[in-house]
Design brief:
By secondary structure, the chain is an alpha+beta fold. It is 50% helix and 22% strand. It folds into three domains: 2-179, 2-Layer Sandwich (Beta-Lactamase), CATH 3.30.450; 182-263, Helix Hairpins (Orthogonal Bundle); 266-414, Heat Shock Protein 90 (2-Layer Sandwich). It has eleven helices and 13 strands. Strands 3-2-1-6-5-4 form a six-stranded antiparallel beta sheet, with helices on both faces. A five-stranded mixed beta sheet has the order 8-10-11-13-12. The protein has a two-stranded antiparallel ribbon with strand order 7-9. The chain starts with a helix and ends with a strand. The structure holds adenosine-5'-triphosphate (ATP) and magnesium ion.
Length: 414
């Protein structure tokens, strides 16, 4: 009695171990290899095989095997109903065959193909979610012993464990195939995104140009016509000429900004030390900073901040962001610049304590010509965004009206 209890305990333990081993991977081949090792050890068999059911062709095909003849089983396909395995797949019943050659269902062909000498067979269906997905077979108990009903029960449990693990692995493979993009595909997708973004920006730009040019042109036209009529009135001519001049200047500024935007070249990458880039940029605006009473507080993380990039273009992007921060603080104050290298990217943060951006305006700030300033062309952030996108990075803005704005430029190292 005590012996029976011990045997049962050890079987339960073995099954628990098998279950965790079979389910320890989602790779189909690993699941199968682990499964076969467990089966053969637990049942003390000379050989074992898993056949999967091809429902569409009504055939079993070999999945994996252990034993001397395993290699030769690779191309074997068995019709439903043929041989012991075919019978088990068709009826869904488990079977013990103590002497294969005395059983009329035994399929001699597989032995002659592999050269294996089958004596006894244990074969069980493998089912997952109520459906037979294949059969699990063990051949020839080692030594002279025969397979028992207990062995059959054990194999049946194993068969179903393997079927479920296989189902999971197959589902995982299908999902990862669907979601896996090679590095090349990722690069192509990124290039496509950049291209479409550029096109969208170009569309918005053209619409913006038409809209922006219209007003000054109409004003200039109106005043020119009036001038033409009132040529004798010197004062009226002077006023008209002034308006025409200022509108013309506005147009000229806009045209040169647009030209600069259109001429932005593709990045030419080389190693860039970000702190040097900031030094250059700050030097370039030193006079304006002093005139406006703005102090720059710089800080950086412990890691060196170097990356492959187009330094000149990045400087333009950073300058545009810093200029906005300065313009948001007309009364002067402190402006913070922080550089931090993370595992995969570098983050440059520009933080001001200026007027902030309202939640309604925030989604539009990257649009060409979006500006809240009388003398702004609204292209500063459009340019910065384009440069940073072409480096595979992004600009994130967090702002609160009356408190200030934090702009993060995130640039990937690769
Ligand atoms: N740091 C900031 N603080 C407050 N508002 C900002 C800030 N940065 C951007 N903005 C808002 O976003 C708008 C668009 O910025 P952008 O740099 O593109 O154009 P601009 O500064 O108006 O003109 P330009 O840069 O072409 O001279 C600004 O007009 C402003 O309303
Ligand atoms: Mg700007």
């Amino acid at each position: 009695m005590q012996e029976d209890v011990n045997v049962t305990r050890s079987k339960v333990r073995s099954l628990a171990e098998v279950s965790s081993l079979i389910n320890s991977s989602l790779e189909i081949q690993v699941v199968l290899a682990n499964a076969m090792k467990c089966v053969q050890t637990l049942l003390d068999a000379e050989a074992s095989a898993i056949f999967e059911l091809d429902h569409s062709r009504g055939e079993l095909f070999f999945r994996t095997a252990l034993g001397d003849a395993a290699e030769k089983l690779k191309d074997v396909r068995i019709k439903m109903g043929a041989g012991i395995a075919g019978w088990v797949a068709q009826t869904g019943e488990a079977v013990i065959v103590s002497d294969a050659h005395q059983d009329s269902r035994f399929y001699q062909r597989v032995d002659s193909l592999t050269g294996f000498q089958t004596r006894s067979i244990l074969c069980v269906p493998m089912a997952s979610k109520g459906r037979i997905v294949g059969v699990l077979e063990v051949l020839n108990r080692k030594g002279d012993e025969l397979f028992t009903e207990d062995d059959l029960e054990m194999l049946a449990i194993l068969g179903n464990l393997i079927a479920v693990a296989l189902d999971n692995a197959r589902l995982y493979t299908r999902l990862s195939e669907q979601f896996a993009l090679t590095e090349e595909e990722l690069k192509a997708t990124q290039a496509r995104l950049i291209r479409s973004e550029r096109l969208a920006a170009l569309g918005k730009l053209s619409a913006g140009v038409a809209h922006e040019v219209r007003n000054p042109v109409m004003v200039i036209g109106g005043f020119a016509r009036r001038l033409h009529k009132q040529f004798g009135d010197v004062e009226a001519v002077r006023k008209g000429a002034e308006v025409i001049l200022s509108e013309t200047e506005r147009l000229e500024r806009m045209v040169s900004d647009i030209e600069a935007f259109c001429k932005l070249r593709q990045p030419v990458k080389a190693p860039v030390v970000v702190s040097d880039l900031i030094d250059r940029m700050v030097d370039g605006i030193a006079d304006t900073l002093a005139a406006q009473g703005i102090r720059i507080n710089r800080s950086s993380g412990p890691q060196p901040s170097e990356l492959e990039a187009d330094g000149e273009l990045l400087e333009i992007a950073v300058r545009n962001i810093v200029t906005n921060a300065m313009e948001a603080m007309p009364g002067g104050g402190a402006l913070e610049l922080h550089v931090d290298s993370r595992v995969e990217d570098l983050v440059l943060t520009v933080k001001d304590h200026g007027c902030g951006i309202s939640p309604q305006d925030l989604p539009n700030v990257f649009d060409p010509f979006f500006t809240s300033k009388t003398r702004g062309s609204g292209l500063g952030l459009t340019v910065a965004h384009r440069i940073v996108s072409e480096h595979g990075g992004e600009i994130l803005i967090d702002s609160e009206v009356g408190k200030g704005t934090e702009v993060k430029v995130v640039l990937p190292f690769h």
